[in-house]
């Protein structure tokens, strides 16, 4: 009997065909079938008019007068205002500068997403890339200085999101370690900072950095508005990122700490060489989700008088020659946000599956 048990093989677990899994998930229960049918009815009601407005009756080229007589969307407006929507108030003759700065930031994000480049040198690459992007936007080298009030559009959104995440990373690591520290004072200060920062919305932090902070500084020591907003975003993101990293630290088994001590590694050596690499690897998908939210939250900087991609699109629709094409402007910007966020979300899912192998 024992031999029979040992020789028994588990039943084969063949995955169901895709169509059968789809049918089960959509019509497997009466509730699922009702929800599926309701969604189909909603799509049948909404999609045909949307297609007529956005494609069939749309005006793709021509002046604003032609759009006024059309029943569909005026994509000619996007073609006319594309450079303003992307680069805003920046001098039109030097739009190559924000274009190159945006390309550098996007390239850095793509490179950082590849596991092949998960090295310490990548952090240095980010520092150099951000410095080059900022120099290009300031007009250096060789051009007249461009004040930050003229920075707007896509490069501002990318810069605030990228510099916010990169700048918050070292502070978040220190906060996460401090929150797990055995020193009560250090732990209390870290908890106080994290909980207070997470307890207020980003828009309130931006207000404090832009309106209240200048009142606290001595006369004549004003800090640039964009820099204040960037510092506020870094502090805000560091609180959330610290909690993500702390979750990764808690997921590391105690045996890893004991093994590091057995090898004679000190606290910082163990953290740098053994614990943190494993903890960060565990929470990479969560960090990607935080980056997606941060990119979307950059639209809040309008409350402090700065123009991101969304607000340059809204301003473009106020041009007297092309007045009122808000649907096209917001639709175009929504498509950019949707493309970036969906790509990042799919990357997060791919990365999660890859790390589980």
Task: Give an overview in words.
The longest helix has 30 residues, at 326-355. The chain is mostly helical and 357 residues long. It is built from 16 helices and 2 strands.
Short description:
This protein has a two-stranded parallel ribbon.
Write the layout of secondary structure elements.
Layout: H1 2-7, H2 18-27, H3 30-56, H4 64-68, H5 75-87, H6 96-112, H7 120-138, E1 152-153, H8 154-179, H9 184-198, H10 202-216, H11 225-250, H12 254-262, H13 267-282, H14 284-297, E2 307-308, H15 309-316, H16 326-355
Parallel strand pairs: 1-2
Helix pairs in contact: 5-15, 6-7, 6-8, 7-8, 8-9, 8-11, 9-11, 10-11, 11-13, 11-14, 12-13, 14-16, 15-16
Task: List its salient traits.
globular; 16 helices; 357 residues; mainly alpha; two-stranded parallel ribbon
Query: What overall geometry do the principal axes of the alpha carbons give?
Result: globular
Q: Into which percentage range does the β-strand content fall?
A: under 5%
Estimated structural class: mainly alpha
The total count of helices amounts to 16
Order of strands across the biggest sheet? 1-2
| C-alpha Rg (nearest Å) | 26 Å
Oligomer, anyone? single chain
